[in-house]
Amino acid sequence: MTRVYRITALVLAVVAVGVGAFFAGRSTAPTTTSGPTTTTSEAPTTSTSPAVCEAAQLRIAQSGVNGAAGTIERTFSLVNAGPAPCTLDGYPGLLLLGHGPAVQPTNVVRGGGLTFENIPPSAVELAPGATAYFNIGYSDVTAPCSTATAVAVIPPATSTHLAVSVAPSILACDNGTLHVSAVFGSTDRTATQTTAPPST
């Protein structure tokens, strides 16, 4: 089922998740055996994965525009400009910005629709200098419409936005409705078979 996310302020979503773990001590009654005791010791295993890509370490740009029959699609690129790998997983938050920048009515719909297929969310690991992408699609024929010269983007699982100018301006009708894809990598052939795929 498509989920609709309505945005009424510049800050699309501020998610502060705190996870704490406290382990109380346990006592076990001693065990006595008559024979020899063998103890097996295993080294603890640790699994490390790159941290979430924060807005401060990403560069964003519009990398493709296409449209036909009243629907427009744009592809945006996110480059890891930091010194270490990071991960993007899920949907970016979006807010349309006019001159000033003035916040414009924005209604974000996650998943496929209009001109591109639904892309299942999956983790995209970005080495330094690597690029991920996401698509937005909208109609420019059904009033009321929102006009934007820039878009505020919040990377998945973060709370800080970065802004990108767009040309030509976005005219997103139906109350500023934007369909947005999950972030995908440049090697994802299913995701890149859209009407405005990345050029790489």
Could you walk me through the main structural features you see in this protein, from its secondary elements to its overall organization?
With 200 residues, the protein is mainly beta. The protein has a domain at 50-93 and 109-142 and 150-167 and 180-192. It contains 2 helices and 13 strands; from the N terminus they run E-E-E-E-E-E-E-E-E-E-E-H-E-E-H. The strands form 3 sheets. Strands 1, 3, 4, 7, 9, 12 and 13 form a 7-stranded mixed sheet that branches. The protein has a 3-stranded mixed sheet with strand order 2-5-8, with no helix packed on it. A 3-stranded antiparallel sheet has the order 6-10-11. Strand 10 and strand 11 (162-172) form a beta hairpin. Mean pLDDT is 78; it is low at 1-41.
Please describe the structure with a list of short key phrases separated by commas or semicolons.
globular; single chain; 39% strand; 3-stranded mixed sheet; mainly beta; disordered N terminus; 200 residues; 4% helix
Give the topology, please:
Layout: E1 4-7, E2 51-52, E3 58-68, E4 71-80, E5 86-88, E6 93-97, E7 106-110, E8 124-126, E9 131-139, E10 146-154, E11 162-172, H1 173-176, E12 177-180, E13 184-185, H2 189-192
Parallel strand pairs: 2-5, 7-12
Antiparallel strand pairs: 1-7, 3-4, 4-9, 5-8, 6-10, 9-12, 9-13, 10-11
Euclidean distance between termini CA atoms? 32 Å
The radius of gyration computed from the alpha-carbon positions, rounded to a whole number of angstroms, is 23 Å
Class from helix and strand fractions: mainly beta
What proportion of the residues is helical, as a percent range? under 10%
Report strand %.
35-45%
Order of helical and strand elements: EEEEEEEEEEEHEEH
H/I helix tally = 2
The largest pleated sheet is described as:
7 strands, mixed
Number of strands: 13
Q: Low-confidence spans: pLDDT under 50, at least 5 residues?
A: 1-41
Average pLDDT rating:
78
What form results from the Cα inertia axes?
A: globular
